[in-house]
């Protein structure tokens, strides 16, 4: 099974970076490296080399570690084809459904997902173990109780289609590894739309009980589907529909999932 290390960066945008290692070969991948010194220190403490960098997309807070790590390790930088001219040292464009860090038996690997919406050159990685998806690295596509904004080269309609295609049908047991820790604020937004959502209230209490910037809740999709409004829109309850209509000032807003999703994303942009 792949070994996963989540690294909280203490950055202003509360970024997460990740290290993923395939134990049979020792090959190691850095996802969205932010601070090269922080990552190097962890690699050295474990006596690991760094073979690959993958940037989920081209925004600077997801690529700022590329230069330092490339200079130190000479690692291969992997990216979406649309990010090749935007991401520092990008060398290899990844194919959709391509496998990374695959073990010799083919039972363990990361699968490349094309996930446009936050930007049009966005990739997520699905961890597969023995034919079963167990976790997904979502960059700025899916957050705890939220989704990415579309204000810097994206499109909310496209993001909706990505969420519907790639994430709505994932098994509930799949763990979520997002690119930022926005959980408290996102849950507060969720409750501003639907104050009667008990799952969101309980989730916020749980997160507020964790040690700031040290402890983090790794949710799965079953949990997210109880309090993340961008998933609740696929089977919306009346409280959520009314909340979106009231907050958007559109009492006759249609209640189909796509319209609700786009309206929610607009409300979150202004919140």
UniProtKB/TrEMBL annotation:
Keyword rRNA processing: no
InterPro entries, per the entry: Clx_II_MBL, Glyoxalase_II_hydrolase, HAGH_C, Metallo-B-lactamas, RibonucZ/Hydroxyglut_hydro
Pathway(s) per entry: Secondary metabolite metabolism; methylglyoxal degradation; (R)-lactate from methylglyoxal: step 2/2
Keywords for the protein's UniProt record, in alphabetical order: Hydrolase, Metal-binding, Zinc
MF (Gene Ontology): hydroxyacylglutathione hydrolase activity; metal ion binding
Cofactor(s) the protein needs: Zn(2+)
Pfam families named in the record: HAGH_C, Lactamase_B
Residue ranges of domain Metallo-beta-lactamase in the record: 14-180
The keyword Hydrolase belongs to this UniProt entry's keyword annotation: yes
Coiled-coil residues: none
EC number: 3.1.2.6
Family in the record: Belongs to the metallo-beta-lactamase superfamily. Glyoxalase II family.
PANTHER family registered for this protein in UniProt: HYDROXYACYLGLUTATHIONE HYDROLASE, HYDROXYACYLGLUTATHIONE HYDROLASE GLOB
Protein name: hydroxyacylglutathione hydrolase
Natural source organism: Leptospira sarikeiensis
């Amino acid at each position: 099974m792949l070994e996963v290390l989540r690294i909280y960066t203490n950055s202003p945008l509360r970024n997460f970076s990740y290290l993923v290692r395939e134990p049979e070969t020792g090959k190691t991948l850095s996802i969205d490296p932010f601070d090269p010194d922080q990552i190097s220190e962890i690699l050295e403490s474990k006596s690991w080399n760094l073979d690959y960098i993958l940037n989920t997309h081209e925004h600077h807070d997801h690529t700022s570690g590329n230069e330092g790590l490339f200079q130190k390790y000479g690692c291969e930088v992997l990216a979406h084809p649309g990010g090749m001219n935007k991401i520092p040292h990008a060398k290899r464009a990844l194919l959709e459904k391509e496998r990374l860090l695959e073990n010799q038996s083919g039972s363990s690997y990361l699968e490349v997902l094309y996930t446009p919406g936050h930007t049009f050159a966005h990739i997520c990685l699905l961890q597969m173990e023995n034919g079963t998806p167990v976790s997904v690295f979502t960059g700025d596509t899916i957050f705890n109780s939220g989704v990415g904004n579309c204000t810097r080269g994206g499109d909310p309609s496209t993001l909706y289609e990505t969420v519907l295609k790639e994430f709505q049908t994932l098994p509930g047991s799949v763990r979520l590894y997002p690119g930022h820790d926005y959980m408290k604020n996102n849950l507060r937004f969720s409750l501003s739309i639907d104050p009667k959502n008990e799952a969101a209230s309980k989730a916020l209490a749980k997160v507020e009980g964790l040690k700031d910037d040290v402890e983090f809740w790794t949710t799965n999709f079953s949990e997210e589907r109880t309090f993340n409004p961008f998933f609740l829109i696929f089977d919306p309850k009346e409280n959520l529909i009314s909340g979106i209509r009231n907050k958007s000032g559109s009492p006759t807003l249609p209640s189909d999932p796509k319209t609700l999703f786009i309206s929610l994303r607009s409300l979150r942009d202004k919140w």
